[in-house]
Amino acid sequence: MGKPFFCPKDFNMTKYIIAGLVTLWMGSVSFAQYAQWESFLTATRVNDVRGSGEAVWMATDGGLYQYNKADGSVTHWHKTNAGLPSNEVEAIAFDELAQVWIGTYDMEMAYRDGSGNWIPAHFPAGLFNDEQPLLLYCMDFGPDGSLWVGTNQGLARKSGDSWTLTNELNHPGTFLRNIWALEVLPDGSAYVASNLPYRVSAEGDVQLLGNDVSDAPFAYSDAHLLYMPESGIVWHANDIGEVSRRLPGQGWETWQISQDFPGLNSNILSLSKDENGHILVLTERNGAYTLMEEGGWIEVEWVAPYSQCAYADADTRVQALDRQWHIERNGELTTAPFQLHPIQWGISDGFAEADGSMILLHDGAMTHYRDGQWLATDSLFAQGMFMQAYDIAEGANGHRYALAGQRVWQLIDGNWQQVGVGGVNFPIAGLYGASVAPDGSLWVFVYDYGLMRYQGGQWTHFGQSFFAESFIRVMACDNNGLLWMSYIQNNGATVTGIATFDGQQLEIIDNEEIGFEPGYLYDIVTHDNGVYFASYYEGLLHFDGEQWARIEAPGAATGSLARATAVAVSDNNRLAFVIHGEGLYVRDAAGQWQVFDENNSPLPNTEIHRLIWSADDELWVVAAYHDLHVYRGEWVTSSSENVVPSAEITLKLYPNPVAEQLFVDLSQLSFANNEDEMVRLAVWDASGRLVVSKWFRPGAPVADLAVASLPAGAYTLTATTANGLTAACRWIKE
């Protein structure tokens, strides 16, 4: 039996303008999975733990985990293997059919049907103000099957086919904006925690939960809520170290963490209850506390410090810590990590071996990945002291150096050894960027001291005033031994730019020569065909030895809107770079583009920090410093892609000719059976060259493309669905 389906939310206005409102229904349509990608995820934050029958569910920033009590197995769902809308799972809820629902931080929802498929569910267009950020914090179902969702724009509720939004705009005088927590009551109303706690009825009536504003607990940026249905008690915890309790019909009783909890001065992470229904207050550094019947708080022994969430029922206790969980069942304790690879945090760099394996630098260790296996790590330790490794430099002849523990290390005969010991007289507290020259010498920048070069067992200090007055974080040596640097100076006003140094001559490159103001650079990569610069203010810049140019990908933001954060070039001259907020762009040697974003891949549109090509042309993507995504699919080539597809349907668009905005009518493409089907809009010039390519899920029959930057002339626009249906139309750019 079908269930009502929610209309898709509006897309990002910088990419698409969606018009109209389409009513959709839940069917058997599940999310796409990404077989061409492999993802290695690490959960660093646990947001919610819920139990249902023989399963315990954990929502994390690395996907959704399910613990099966019967056999002790753990299943991990994420965007790559299950097509979840996002790996940032924020909330868990169960509907009247006992189906598990999830809500993600970026305002997506999904539920798992009886066949084990994850089915998308969306908010209706127009419910929220899409000109402001949209975030989801919590969700719950009422006894009548209604769905309640706490967001940063108020409390959303779906009853039947209708959605309502309750917030401070339609209830003036309240603080109903950020709904950080909610608990639905048996009578169908809900307790919600915003800046103040409220009770919201099913009809949308709002009542302050307390005698007056001075009586109710206040929260500034986060709050927790827990309702005890047996006693009618509601618990509240805020971000200023207060725990409050309200008995039915009474005022609030409040305890201060710093005063009323024995030996405790810590942040509150969450509220839960034990197997007997007693309150658990989980703190950051001191574990959990419960309130004794005679008064006074005592520490709970079974909850470890730094537990972010806890769950307990008659036979199972679960505590979710940072990157691992503890499961106690029938007196037996099991500890397991969330991640399925040995990397926990802090991926800062990496390099590819000739045999196709990958070596990643993280958390003071180097981890090898070879032939599908994670191998033992080479830890960087010295005299028993752990060292945070944060940069690595590799030369063409196998010279490898690492900056770790504010020391410089070199890989010699398979062992890491300090270099220049006894001959180093520069401050060791300010080591930053490093790069290896073709002759094997190492360049290192030392903050507030200058530039250093290690060559032939000796250090040389370059103490020119420019280096002493600059901060240089990113540098790279080209094939001629010329060192390229991104510098920042602050002598009353912040100055950024690009400079080169050959060991003798320093050249500060004039921005007028570049043609742009590159600003802060996230990455510099040298290659046989020039130097690439990932600029957070100008996108991807390229210098071929004679001329400067900005590389603009089809459909990507340009100029000051193009915030490039990473770049890499493969041995096959395949260029990859990231535009913050838009995705990953890959271009082959013949100029053919592929685009990967959150709609057609497991990649996030933000927080991509590093790109690394393997020797066998696989692209490794580091996101959020702890997640790895590897593209193992085929790359498009000019022979296969630089041809305008044949069209089965005439595509309608307007205006034609067009100067700036091109509106595309997709109504003749059928999406009735799959509203999440990916559609590719492509623009081809008169020579058959692909100049714009965008992927999206149609939320309405009209899409919008910005074409102002294209040269005047004749073009063809095609729309291709996942099942191969193609529509096309020719148009003129004025």
Note the topology.
Elements: E1 37-40, E2 46-52, E3 55-60, E4 63-68, E5 74-77, H1 79-82, E6 89-94, E7 100-104, E8 109-112, E9 118-121, E10 136-141, E11 147-151, E12 154-159, E13 162-166, E14 181-184, E15 190-193, E16 197-200, E17 206-208, E18 223-228, E19 233-238, E20 242-246, E21 252-256, H2 257-260, E22 268-273, E23 279-283, E24 288-291, E25 297-300, E26 309-312, E27 316-321, E28 324-329, E29 332-337, E30 347-352, E31 358-362, E32 365-370, E33 373-374, E34 378-379, E35 381-382, E36 385-386, E37 389-394, E38 400-404, E39 407-412, E40 415-418, E41 431-436, E42 442-446, E43 450-455, E44 458-462, H3 465-469, E45 470-477, E46 483-490, E47 494-501, E48 506-508, H4 511-514, E49 521-527, E50 530-535, E51 539-543, E52 548-551, E53 564-569, E54 575-579, E55 583-587, E56 593-596, E57 608-613, E58 619-623, E59 627-631, H5 638-641, E60 649-650, E61 652-654, E62 661-665, E63 679-685, E64 690-696, E65 702-706, E66 713-721, E67 726-733
Parallel strand pairs: 60-67
Antiparallel strand pairs: 1-59, 2-3, 3-4, 4-5, 6-7, 7-8, 8-9, 10-11, 11-12, 12-13, 14-15, 15-16, 16-17, 18-19, 19-20, 20-21, 22-23, 23-24, 24-25, 26-27, 27-28, 28-29, 30-31, 31-32, 32-33, 32-34, 35-36, 37-38, 38-39, 39-40, 41-42, 42-43, 43-44, 45-46, 46-47, 47-48, 49-50, 50-51, 51-52, 53-54, ...
